[in-house]
Predict the structure.
Amino acid sequence: MISLPYPFSKPFNKSRTDASPNSLKQLASLCDDPQVADFVSTYNNLTTRRERTPSSRFTKPNYTNYKPPKYPIILCHGLSGFDTLILIPSVRTFINVISNAVSYKNSEYFVMDETDNEVKKNVLEVEYWIGVKRILESKGCTVFITKVPPFGSIEERATSLNKILNTVVNQQLQTKNDKITKLNFIAHSMGGLDCRYLISRIPENEKNYEVASLTTLSTPHGGSEVANYVVGQFGKIRKSLNDNGPLLPMCYYQLTTYYAQYFNNITPNDPDVKYFSYGAYFSPKWYSSFALTWSIINYATNGEPNDGMVTVKSSHWGKYMGTLPNMDHLDIINWRNKFHDTFEQLLQNKKNPESILQLYVNITNDLAEQGC
């Protein structure tokens, strides 16, 4: 007698014990357990939904016909990006961020102390976009990697980004005949919100450049249910302490789905800027770094495809270019969880480490075709 492990404990139909199920539909027909039939129906519905997700343009580029964009590329990082991506902050960093949020209601104190030596060094060289700068420069692109306060508010980060860009333009991108310099932004996660604020809210007379395009990668334009959850949990702690002040940096509140509605109203698109966006989704294994956050979003949205931080739907802004399948929120910037990689190798299902870099070659080639 052939039987399935828990929770599918009932045996296959005895008249079909010689059969081996090679599809979910056949599995349901071979087993008398109604729980199996329910599982198959639910899984098929989810699969059908994913098949309707917009297809990805994540294909191998034609390097022979590649053309670099006309204007420099500016790479803008997301929340907690720094010299290295702060996945788990040090005790010192965590205490500084939280204590600043508790001690001050003025959001300017939510950023890290910029007198810190770690902030002062390598203002433009941040290893956040692993391999991206290298491959784009090898194709003839001019690329700059920017660094803004990792836990600052959108306004603070956008203001910091603007100051950095003014410096870069003055010192490294002088144009002939005093023509204004144009830039292409490629932004990951919260970085896309920083760029949108910079484009529409920072006055033109405070910029010595113009923005030609903004391409966002898994940016929560519609907010993130993970931020909703985190803010909600800290709200309970705040109430238990009888404290009316914030316990989190402002950026977490600004990433919620309800703040996104307000933010989108105050940051209209600039008609002179081209806007493009990409989303991503994956199904986590138990060892995935985003298994918990994926579950939070999955529960809150009734199964919307997501990358562990942002749903595909929330990623849409401007012209939607496609969805990246089997990519979590950090895979998109070529970060790979070493523990995850080890298991992928054992399962002989390892991704091509160069594959995600092809996306950036595609993006920049598209920008060139758009005249950017």
Remarks:
- The CA atoms of residues 213 and 274 lie 4 Å apart.
- The chain has two domains: 14-51, 63-369.
